[in-house]
TrEMBL record:
Keyword Nucleotide-binding: no
Name of the featured protein: Receptor ligand binding region domain-containing protein
Organism from which the protein derives: Leptobrachium leishanense
Coiled-coil regions listed in the entry: none
Localisation: Membrane
Organism classification: Eukaryota, Metazoa, Chordata, Craniata, Vertebrata
CC per GO annotation: plasma membrane
Molecular-function GO term, any one: G protein-coupled receptor activity
Length: 458
């Protein structure tokens, strides 16, 4: 929804891209790399059939691509789009390979690469004096290299790895490894899936004394939260910066199928999030089967303004930013080309070849005063927020209270990268740690307490 909102916002703003209307194609790759390639080729060809090197587009130009969210779908997209020299901005893929500007000169992302997250994990482990960990990742094609990269970064700082496993359908061997483990900190990375999270749900008691450190690229924390939330109690997540988008909630309350009757993306969201019947009964049946619910007939009073997963989802701001960056680049390209009318209206091949140069030079402040620009790796530098999962009881009801005990920003000087500012935080088993103090002395020591090999040693 933030994608639609950003496009509408730009089209209503006369100061950006005057006399130009942005449109869009929206496809869901469903986490499938093959479908991502198919959808990409279909957009490029402008036809229902995928036809590389041929375009049926007559009225409009494909300016660029926003997506995907995961590395599984984004990497093959980038391989195709770099070949055809189309600009792509991802809002979630963190695979380190995508930082290679020689291979992917047309690729940008509103997140940082995994290597930044690995360094952040090391900073956190060293700060707490932890030197004995286990590693768990998903088993998709990109994660074997991830384990290798993460292991190299961790061991180069004197931290020992007890085990590293990949989540797969065979949980027995992995469960046996976890049961025998003596480390009490597990680093959890990889995009994962519900089926791959079964390791944690098969025997939740194994993890009751384990603190998980969850990478920003992993959705496994969210999956575990929905099934066995107490596994997460006392664990730590790195969360990307999110900002409230002005006007977004009002937009969500105003969007109805009646005022956007030909918007297939809105139709899909209407079924998925509000569980409303669509005029397309076949589509309704597909979503009912896929998401296991029964849709019902909805009135015009229904809207998206109360759906938190849409309003506060970590990717919403990334998508919104990606659209605005692309629009800013197009606007500046248009301004330069206005001096030469022929240049703006020349063939699409010349048009798309120039756009990524303008994306590189985009630099502005958003509504919250945050600087938006891409570094030399095509990444948006950002602050990582450290969140601690804590579950509390109120009148017998269990609820989650995410606390933010600190931040990490790798673009800051080394002695200022980690900021810990939360005192009296709770860790596993409701044990209270001593107060945490962040000091700026020469040896970066931590006054107040120290850990030995895990976050659980009090």
């Amino acid at each position: 929804m933030s994608f639609i909102f950003a496009i509408d916002e730009i089209n209503r703003n006369p100061s950006i891209l005057p006399n130009v209307t942005l449109g869009y194609h929206a496809y869901d790759a469903c986490g499938d790399s093959n479908k991502a390639i198919k959808d990409t080729l279909q957009i490029l060809s402008g036809n229902q059939r995928e036809a590389p090197n041929y375009s049926c587009q007559e009225r409009s130009k494909v300016a660029g691509f926003i997506g995907g969210r995961t590395s599984i779908t984004t990497l093959p997209m980038a391989q195709v789009l770099s070949l055809y020299e189309y600009t792509q901005i991802s809002y979630g893929a963190s695979n380190t390979e995508l930082s290679d500007r020689k291979l992917y000169p047309y690729f940008f992302r509103t997140v940082q690469g995994d290597n930044v997250y690995y360094q952040a994990i090391v900073i956190l482990l060293k700060y707490f004096g932890s030197n004995w960990v286990g590693i768990i990742t998903s088993d998709d094609v990109t994660r074997e290299k991830e384990i290798e990269e993460l292991s190299q970064v961790i061991t180069s700082h004197g931290i020992c790895i007890e085990f590293s496993i990949q989540l797969s359908g065979n949980n027995e061997q992995n469960l046996d490894i976890v049961k025998k483990a003596t480390s009490q900190i597990f680093i959890l990375c990889g995009e994962g899936s519900v089926s791959r999270a079964k390791l944690f749900t098969a025997d939740p008691l194994i993890f009751q004394n384990i603190t998980l450190i969850i990478c920003p690229s992993s959705i496994l924390g969210t999956i575990i939260h929905k099934t066995h939330m107490l596994i997460l109690n006392g664990s730590l997540s790195f969360i990307l910066s999110t900002e409230n988008i002005p006007g977004f909630q009002s937009f969500l309350s105003s969007v109805k199928p009646s005022n956007r009757p030909r918007d297939p993306l809105l139709e899909d969201l209407w079924i998925i999030y509000l569980r409303c019947i669509s005029p397309n009964r076949y589509k309704t049946k597909i979503f009912e089967t896929l998401y296991m619910f029964t849709a019902c007939k909805c009135t015009e009073e229904k809207d998206f303004s109360h759906i938190e997963v849409i309003i506060k989802h970590v990717t919403a701001y990334g998508v919104y930013t990606a659209v605005h960056v692309l629009a800013q680049a197009l606007h500046r390209m248009q301004e330069d080309s206005n001096r030469n009318y022929h240049e703006w209206n020349q063939g699409e091949n010349v048009f798309k070849n120039k756009l990524h140069h303008y994306v590189k030079r985009v630099h502005y402040k958003d509504h919250a005063g945050k600087e938006i620009f891409f570094n030399d790796k095509g990444e948006l530098p950002d602050t990582l927020h450290l969140f601690k999962w804590e579950f509390r009881q109120d009148k017998g009801n269990l609820y989650v209270a995410k606390m933010s005990p600190g931040t990490i920003n790798m673009s800051f000087p080394e002695d200022q990268q980690l900021q810990i500012y939360y005192e009296g935080t709770y860790w596993k088993n409701n044990q209270v740690s001593k107060e945490i103090y962040w000091t700026h002395n020469s040896n970066n020591s931590m006054k107040g307490f120290s850990f030995k090999c895990s976050l659980l040693d009090m």
